[in-house]
Amino acid sequence: MRRKTLIDIVLALLMICVLAVAGCGRKEAQPDTEAQEKISGTIVCAGSTAMQPLVEEAADKFMARNPNVQITVQGGGSGTGLSQVSQGACDIGMSDIFAEEKEGIDASQLVDHKVIVQAFAVVAHPEVGVDSLTKKQLQEIFTGKITNWKEVGGRNQKIFLVNRAKGSGTRATFKKYVLDGMEETKGDVEQDSSGTVHKIVSETPGAISYLGIAYLNDKVKAIKIDGAAPTEEEIASGKYPFWSYGHMYTEGEPSKVEQSFIDYILSDEIQQGLVKEMYYFPVTGMQVERRP
Q1: pTM (2 decimals)?
Q2: Residue 240 zone, left/alpha/beta (φ > 0; ψ -120 to 50; rest)
């Protein structure tokens, strides 16, 4: 009887040791949540109105995951974004153009983070009667040589020219890659906000301008350029000329919270999800290189 009792005691002690070791193993496998450093801070982004819708959406998602981070996204145009980030007035300058292309900016002090590829489209009022224009025709329209849609096969309707503001990165991209460096004539109206440009073109008979394709809908007509449309395939093949990188510039190396937000926009979740959903293109898939 004593022998059986001794065996039972030994077995019980062994079981306690086994359970203790297993418990220790499970504890070591659990993440040390207290050691995980939380991201916190504030970020002010300003600049490109073409990039603004995407960055606003990405900021909302990022803040939902990181409640100690506050991100404010403002427009104003690429020139404003580059000027403000170089002056320390904002943390991230959103731009459709390289900083080297902006006069009065010391680009050497800024760090470039290419986050998206964005296509732009020439847009017109839906009833102009034209679906495609050549680069030469666009150049003659925006330099004032062609003033009526009937001259390019459309309706007998005066062309109402909506120019972008001179600080606009979209305008700089249009001038460089569509107008081949020609200066636009003074139009009927000048406006920088992409949303306002869309409203004017959609409501004004004969109107023409250009927008990021994220703003396209059935209220404006997207005009092909030499028969090419603003698609990822046409851009990658070199057929469609009107596109640019979307840049997020920081003054010097970004802070931890700024880098975290930029990394989030470059993540597969955003590049393969939100970027495509909002009619931008992933920067990782672009094979055509452009330099300042």
Answers
A1: 0.74
A2: beta
